[in-house]
Design brief:
With about 260 residues, the protein is of the alpha+beta class. It has one domain: 4-Layer Sandwich (Deoxyribonuclease I, Chain A). About 20% of the residues lie in helices and about 25% in strands.
């Protein structure tokens, strides 16, 4: 099965820049979106699939969504401290799919403490699930030096601080997760998923790998490939694809009740 994660940096804007062309071409089983910047009620495109949204309380900000042809047993809307619509989870027979948009620590690390607390809540949520997890999204951190072009220059900048990198290490250990891309390509350099709009960063491939699939170690044997679609534009991020053999994922249950989880 094919999973996609993509921070679209505004779904309406991305639609004007080729979103549907990629969506149709990739024909994913699960298409996870971050930073929708719109409310689900504003989305009027006819889709032959199930749609699940977590809308930010603040209009035009944050937000996550999943489009899938596989009906879940249930879906969970996670309400964080400020109702920013950052986490949505779908439950299937053998696993949970969790889509997240992790807060950016911002300039001068103004939101670093907020982020650390938010990530503690995320870890608690993942641990509360009673099944293995496929966790994906914009995690807003380059984990290792290999994951960004200029590690020394960014050592104290948002997305590459010791605190943020350490928190991801802690999450991998605490929740028994594997970074699917590094599982297959431990030494592959110059593989990035986000580029600044400044200084021709994308043309020069001066980027960061901050969009991930993290898979429970019980499931890592099903990882077939992870593809970074760096040639797909439409956002400052590019889509990332996980090809995975999933047991019993398709069209299960007659309904998908919504449950809420708060932290």
């Amino acid at each position: 099965m094919r999973f996609i994660t993509w921070n679209v940096n505004g779904l309406r804007a991305c639609i004007q820049k080729g979103f549907w062309e990629f969506y149709k071409a990739v024909d994913a089983d699960f298409f996870c979106i971050q930073e929708t910047k719109m409310h689900s009620s504003q989305f009027t495109e006819p889709l032959d699939c199930y749609q699940y949204w977590n809308n930010a309380e603040k209009k035009g900000y944050s937000g996550t969504a999943i489009f899938t042809r596989h009906r879940p047993i249930q879906y969970r809307i996670v309400r964080d401290f400020d109702n920013e619509g950052r986490i949505i989870a779908l439950e299937y027979t053998k696993f949970f799919l969790v889509n997240a948009y992790v807060p950016n620590s911002q300039k001068e690390l103004a939101r670093l403490d907020y982020r650390m607390n938010w990530e503690n809540g995320l870890a608690d949520f993942l641990l509360s699930l009673n099944k293995p997890v496929i966790y994906c999204g914009d995690l807003n951190v380059a984990h290792k030096e290999i994951d960004l072009k200029h590690p020394k220059a960014n050592r104290f900048n948002a997305g590459f601080t010791e605190q943020e990198r350490g928190k991801l290490t802690q999450l991998l250990d605490k929740c028994n997760l594997t970074d699917a891309y590094r599982y297959l390509y431990p030494d592959k350099a110059d593989a990035y998923t986000w580029w600044s709009y400044m200084r021709n960063a994308r043309a020069n491939n001066a980027g960061w790998r901050i969009d991930y699939f993290l898979v429970s170690k019980q499931l890592q044997g099903g990882i077939r490939d992870v593809v970074i679609h760096s040639n797909v534009f439409g956002s400052d991020h590019c889509p990332v694809e996980l090809n995975y053999t999933v047991p019993d994922a398709g069209n299960i249950g007659n309904s998908a009740p919504k449950l809420s989880f708060f932290f």
